[in-house]
Amino acid sequence: GHDHSTELTTVCGHAPYVKADLDLKTQWIMTLWLDDHGKVNAFDGRLLALTDADPFDEELHNKVVEWENKGRAELDKPVGCSSVGLDAIALHVRQFETNLGNFFTDSIKSVHKTDVAMYNSGCIRGDKVFEKGVLSKKTIIEMHPFGNVVVKIYATGSDLRKYIEKQLECYGWCGNFVNVAGLNYTYSTSAPKGSRLVKLTYPNGTVVG
Questions:
Q1: How far is the C-alpha of 201 from the C-alpha of 164, rounded, in Å?
Q2: What is the b/e burial string over 84-95, where b = at least 16 CB atoms within 10 angstroms of the residue's CB?
Q3: How far is CA 185 from CA 69, 122, 159, 180, in A?
Q4: How many CB atoms within 10 Å of residue 209?
Q5: What pLDDT, in 10s, does the model give residues 145-164?
């Protein structure tokens, strides 16, 4: 899930769910009181702000470094290469077609052997142009840090048209912009919601839906 903001939630007295802010800005310290059956009777939560003024814990630091080194050894393994820089600039991927959006959708379409592939731009991260050359596991995760799954369905041309039109209702920064493979489409951002999709075709020029 997302961690853009802090939250402490409980439903019907069950164990609480907490999450801290993004980028290690805060940390929860939770205390739970359980009954004899292991059920949460009560809880207390304290939210601490993390700053450079916090005391340095050498033992914890060394443990973090140890696991970073283990992770780096695995994540630095190459998985492919690119002959061009791949554009993941947020302002680009959330508003128009980019080569990284094409890279993801073309890959999905090829691996899963579908006629069409769609991928929402909010999943593309990094906010930079990744340099051409070797692509490591770390680079791919930086481009796509989420544990999303591919859903393979049957859809009509009309379904595709409605879906893209719906996603264009929130255009700009919200991450709904749809990257596609096996389709071409044009749109007008100045048109009213529900009428922004101008043209939707297959690569051979046939109109969809």
A1: 12
A2: eebbbebebbbe
A3: 45, 19, 14, 9
A4: 13
A5: 988 899 999 999 999 999 99
In three-state secondary structure terms, 209 is coil
Helix (H, G, I), strand (E, B) or coil at 121: helix
Beta strands in 69-191 (DSSP E): 78-82, 86-87, 117-120, 129-130, 133-136, 178-181, 184-187
DSSP string, 43-62: EEEEEEE--TTSPP-HHHHH
Residues 6 or more apart whose CB falls under 8 angstroms from that of 203 comprise 182, 183, 184
Q: What is the mean pLDDT of the chain?
A: 91
Q: Give residue-wise pLDDT tens across range 162-200.
A: 999 999 999 888 899 999 999 999 999 999 999 999 999
- Whether the Cβ atoms of residue 124 and residue 139 lie closer than 8 Å to each other: no
Query: Do the strands 184-187 and 129-130 form a parallel or antiparallel pair, or are they unpaired?
Result: unpaired
d(CA 128, CA 77): 21
Say if strands 7-9 and 17-19 run parallel, antiparallel, or are unpaired.
antiparallel
Tell me the C-alpha distance between 177 and 120, whole Å: 6
